[in-house]
Amino acid sequence: LKIFKIGGSIIEDDTELNQFLEVFAQIPSPKILIHGGGKMASELSKQLNLEVKMQDGRRITDADTLKVTVMTYAGWINKNIVAKLSALNINSIGLTGADGNLILAHKRMHATIDYGFVGDVDAVNSQLLQQLLSLDLLPVIAPITHDVNGQLLNTNADTIATEVAIAMAKSDSVELFYLFDLPGLMGNLEDLNSLISTIKTNEIEALEQANIISAGMIPKVHNACQAIKKGVQKITFTNVEGLAKIINGEVAGTQITL
Amino acid sequence: LKIFKIGGSIIEDDTELNQFLEVFAQIPSPKILIHGGGKMASELSKQLNLEVKMQDGRRITDADTLKVTVMTYAGWINKNIVAKLSALNINSIGLTGADGNLILAHKRMHATIDYGFVGDVDAVNSQLLQQLLSLDLLPVIAPITHDVNGQLLNTNADTIATEVAIAMAKSDSVELFYLFDLPGLMGNLEDLNSLISTIKTNEIEALEQANIISAGMIPKVHNACQAIKKGVQKITFTNVEGLAKIINGEVAGTQITL
Asked: I need a labelling partner for A85 at 20 to 30 A (CA). Which of A212, B138, B151, B238 fits?
């Protein structure tokens, strides 16, 4: 089973999204796609005169902002991807964590910061994903969860990808791809030749301390280490070009291994 | 199989929605829920300074308006209902016509009016609904369709309810409920005692010509007649109070019969 997380400009730019989906369509099933929200939620918030508040890369989500994130992530972005996949002859089904009780979460409690309607994941219903895959439906998951008490929650898409991969790894051999705007993890962001091709989980801390892994990447890399430690077989960080190379049997991106 | 279409204030007012969902939760499976968009799409359009254009009760849907309808119908309204059903111990799955290629439509062509991204239904994938029902997932359908070429389309929710009911009636005994703000079809809108309790499809035209069926109800009633003629067993127009009576074995609402 291959699980893909897309974010950043792949979602924000329709041309890049189309390029990704064409490469993605060529990858044999079974596969699962998880998407973030890019800048669209922030843009809609601004158009609606809502203040955009971020804390350590996480969106502070009041009731109005929750509505905006559900509308953009579960509404426009999710259904646009599903419709585009259909045009590529891929039968997909768009889901949030509320659908079929796919992802149970609880509202984040923090001693000093009120994150609002932000959900930390408690459980993934991997059985539902298996059932949908067995119906030849490709799950497309938006980063919205729920608490089973009727409350929708906003959850980081990298976290969802990680949790879904870990849950599926209990019964499947899982490869997880984080697709973003760079060829992979870079030793030096100024130098495109500084791609780190493989890295072991126990080498990560040293790279962080040497400031080789940039601040924005640290949560992504920590998520990846968690996934590897909890049974995900292989994790690759790359961009659309890198993914195209990989499906052609070439080497690309950064692989994280145990 | 019971199919329910909700619209109007049931969707616009959270208290009414909760009241409906509590009654709905008591009705034995299998069941399918189809929702409209109420005024939320118009309100969001206004907040975003988009002009709201209607033609014969149908929304003229330019590209920006399509985005608004997908965000509100498939995003907020759909996922809010799914989360609320989960709190009532009902495992539901929110869908548009794009998901699993559920509802294939084509962009409406009209000699004089450009409706924009409005879809007329060509086919309903009843097999997918049967598969989801057999997984004990209650389908919750938003009034968005697609053309299988990557284009999402805005489709009237009454039409979707009718088409879904007709498609399911090929293999199932189907009862269709249109839930709205009135106890049923009224002989006189000023008089709540003027409820028409049963009406045959061949009596409809006479009621229309006598102006007994009001203009806003005519498309709903025509949809219902279509459904009955194409195999749907029973159609009821009522409100939440009427539905509560019906599940208690009392008589309520208007029934349309062949």
From this structure: B138
Asked if A127 reaches chain B (Cβ–Cβ under 8 Å), the answer is no
Cα→Cα distances B89→B19, B21, B77, B136, Å: 15, 11, 19, 12
C-alpha angle B5-B7-B8 in degrees, rounded to nearest 5: 160
Alpha helix locations (H) across B93-195?
126-134, 157-169
Q: What is the ipTM of this complex?
A: 0.94
Q: How many CB atoms lie within 10 A of CB A249?
A: 6
User: Which residues 15-44 of B have a C-beta within 8 angstroms of A?
Assistant: 44
Cβ contact B140:B95 at 8 Å: yes
* Torsion, Cα of B198, B204, B207, B213 (10° steps): 80
User: CB of A71 within 8 Å of any CB in chain B?
Assistant: yes
Asked whether the beta carbons of A96 and A105 are under 8 A apart, the reply is: no
What residue type is B220 in one-letter code? K
pLDDT along chain A (258 residues), means of 10: 94 94 96 91 90 77 93 97 97 98 94 90 98 98 96 95 97 95 85 88 83 77 91 95 95 92
Question: Would you call A75 and B80 a contact, using CB atoms and an 8 Å cutoff?
Answer: no
Residue among B72, B84, B152 minimizing CB distance to A80: B152
- Which backbone phi and psi does A31 adopt, to 5 degrees? -150, 155
B86 and A98 within 8 Å at the Cβ level: the answer is yes
Instruction: Report the DSSP pairing between strands B152-154 and B175-179.
Output: unpaired
Cβ(A10)–Cβ(A20) under 8 Å? Answer: yes
Q: How far is A183 from chain B (nearest CA, A)?
A: 28
b/e map of A18-42 (b: 16 or more CB within 10 Å)? ebbbebbeeeeebbbbbbbbbebbb
| C-alpha separations of A193 from A101, A199, A248 in Å | 44, 16, 21
Residue B152 contacts A where some CB pair is shorter than 8 Å = yes
The Cα B162–Cα B185 span in angstroms is: 17
SS3 label, residue B133: helix
Per DSSP, the three-state class of B56 is coil
What is the three-class DSSP state of A139? Answer: strand
Asked whether the beta carbons of B176 and B224 are under 8 A apart, the reply is yes
Crossing angle of the two packed helices B14-25 and B240-247, in degrees rounded to 10: 20
All residues at 6 or more sequence positions from B22 whose CB lies less than 8 Å from its CB, including other chains: B88
